[in-house]
Specification:
Helix 2 (45-50) links the parallel strand 2 (33-37) and strand 3. The protein is built from six helices and six strands; from the N terminus they run βαβαβαβααβαβ. The termini are far apart. It has a six-stranded parallel sheet, sandwiched between helices. The protein has 174 residues and is an alpha/beta fold. 37% of the residues lie in helices and 16% in strands. It has a single domain, classed as P-loop containing nucleotide triphosphate hydrolases (Rossmann fold), CATH 3.40.50.
């Protein structure tokens, strides 16, 4: 079976949730899933549940992450190195056959913020293992990436509590 490339993008809530749901489905069918979360801390509620699934691995990330607009130049440089390392480790794991499905969560944010080169991502998509199912999430994917995708689901915000100054709630938004 040929692996395809999925994109969950847009400004709405649920991109990660959709990617995790696909990963859980794949895991339930015996596939090995690897998820890498860029620019997210390790405190998300889904991570606790996913640890209980034998074939679902989450690549370790930092424990807390500031928003990029809160970072100084040195922190942005350090974050760029971290994102580059995470991407390279994920790509190596995929190429060595360690996973059947790879989720790169918030990969588009790393590109939009200049922390990862879009060319690295497009090269990976073009040269990914033939059977690898690849899931990419985040806002504003570049046209070159959209062109390479097999599935594109746009999740659009119509209304969100954040617009009324209601902060993110544990177990719902993170």
């Amino acid at each position: 079976m040929n692996g395809l490339t999925h994109i969950y993008c847009g400004d709405g809530k649920g991109k990660t949730t959709a990617a995790v749901g696909l990963g859980v489905r794949a895991c339930g069918c015996g596939k090995r899933v690897l998820m890498v979360q860029f620019l997210k801390g390790s405190g998300s509620g889904e991570l606790t549940a996913l640890k209980q699934l034998e074939n679902f691995s989450v690549m370790p990330t930092v424990s807390t992450v500031k928003f990029t607009f809160q970072m100084n130049k040195k922190e942005l440089e350090e974050t760029a190195v971290l994102c580059g390392n995470l991407f390279c480790k994920a790509a190596a794991a995929a190429k060595s056959g360690e996973c059947d499905l790879l989720i790169l969560d918030e990969i588009f944010a790393t590109i939009r913020c200049g922390l990862l080169d879009n060319g690295m991502l497009t090269d990976f998509i073009k040269n990914k293992p033939q059977n690898l199912e690849l899931v990419l999430t985040g806002r504003d994917p570049k046209p070159e990436v959209l062109e390479l995708a097999d599935y594109i689901s746009e999740i659009r915000k119509v209304k969100h509590p954040f617009d009324r100054n209601i902060p993110a709630r544990r177990g719902i938004e993170f």
